[in-house]
Amino acid sequence: MAYQVPEPKIFACTQSMELGKKIARSYGTDLGNVLFSHFSDGEFQPSYEESIRGTRIFVIGSTNPSSENLMEMLLMLDAAKRASARHITAVIPYYGWARQDRKDKPRVPIAAKLIAKMLEAAGATRIVTMDLHADQIQGFFEKPVDHLFASTLFLPYLKGLNLDNLTIASPDMGGSKRAYAYSKALKSDVVICYKQRSKANVISHMELIGDVRDKNVVLVDDMVDTAGTLTKAADLMMERGAKSVRAITTHALLSGNAYEKIEKSQLLELIVTDSIPIKKESGKIRVLSCAELFADVMHRVHHNTSISSKFLM
């Protein structure tokens, strides 16, 4: 008699509960039951309210600040390890703290590696994430990492717009590889912004490398935080004669006065995923769900089938 692989169980951290429900629904199941108990000083404790002994579980949760999101994931992983789950996959749509992936000046941490070690120590046997800030973060892990690309969502959307004179733009030099990959898939030109920062989240100067006159420009980036770079780049491109400027960014952090900047900017549209919950609605922001992408990959991981078709870039 052939052995039947038991279906996995899917759980979600608090912040990613809505996305978790969408992923579970796309997978064809319901979210597992987790109870969070809170102490008056802010300490909390997750508890799996069903048996997970000997099973594969997926724990869904982005780890963007505040640090409680990361702490939730760590405690969920540790609880699963101590409850004798066989395989514990941390599904992290947005891998927070990833901008600290190297020592860019003396006496600073490499937070992205520290968090990788914490996730493994807590019990993760596999990581599934999307659009890391730097590809080399995968090397911080000793466990398998499935690094997905939101291009599988964005490219069909862009092709559906049928834009003439399409040009892909990178808002900084570091994103040029991503921009070239999109331009190759869309058979379009590429322009790059060169920026200098006076400090974190503050741009002192920006220049444009390339011609955008009479072009429909699409800015491509992995995240949007204060929206300073994207809005400044959009305004600069419109000044240089662009017909329109859109932006696609995987992770919508949108902190500070980002929403106000976007509304006042010459960005026609900002397209993001729901890897992080949107804080408020905006007529300029369009959200594409990554739930089906993650559900499909989780199914392939569980049944040991190839996921290389999800690596378009």
Task: Give descriptors for this structure.
313 residues, alpha/beta, Rossmann fold, 8 helices, 14 strands, 27% strand
Describe, in plain words, how this protein is organized in 3D.
The chain folds into 2 domains: 9-149 and 291-310, Rossmann fold (3-Layer(aba) Sandwich); 151-288, Rossmann fold (3-Layer(aba) Sandwich). Strands 10-9-8-11-12-13-14 form a 7-stranded mixed sheet, with helices on both faces. A 5-stranded parallel sheet has the order 1-4-5-6-7, with helices on both faces. With 313 residues, it is α/β, with parallel strands linked by helices. The longest helix is centred in the first third of the chain and has 16 residues, at 67-82. It has 8 helices and 14 strands. The radius of gyration is 20 Å and the shape is globular. The protein has helices spanning 17-27, 67-82, 111-122, 151-161, 176-186, 228-239, 258-264, 291-302; strands at 9-12, 34-38, 44-48, 56-60, 87-92, 126-130, 145-148, 166-170, 189-199, 202-209, 216-224, 244-252, 269-273, 285-288.
Brief digest:
The chain has helices spanning 17-27, 67-82, 111-122, 151-161, 176-186, 228-239, 258-264, 291-302, and strands at 9-12, 34-38, 44-48, 56-60, 87-92, 126-130, 145-148, 166-170, 189-199, 202-209, 216-224, 244-252, 269-273, 285-288. It has 313 residues and is α/β, with parallel strands linked by helices. A 7-stranded mixed β-sheet has the order 10-9-8-11-12-13-14, with helices on both faces.
